[in-house]
Design a protein that fits this description.
alpha+beta; 2 helices
Length: 72
């Protein structure tokens, strides 16, 4: 799965500091959460793209099928 998060400059600065403090062997996780932000869900070829102002998620058709199978 490919996830793209575009942080605004103030949050990006914090995330850069987190990345600088990272050492090999540690996990590194970033979370993004947006409230009351309209999302766009569209189909691009055989993929699904879910997009907000700062977050973009591309789901390949195989990943979409896995989600559909969960609801069967």
């Amino acid at each position: 799965m490919k996830v793209r998060i575009e942080f605004p400059p103030d949050i990006a600065e914090l995330k850069v500091e987190e990345a600088k403090a990272w050492t090999p062997g540690q996990t590194l996780a970033w979370e993004a959460e947006e409230y009351k932000v309209p999302e766009k869900i569209k189909r691009v070829d055989e993929d699904i793209v879910i997009e907000t102002k700062h977050i973009k998620v591309n789901l390949h058709k195989d990943e979409v099928q896995k989600i559909i199978n969960l609801f069967k």
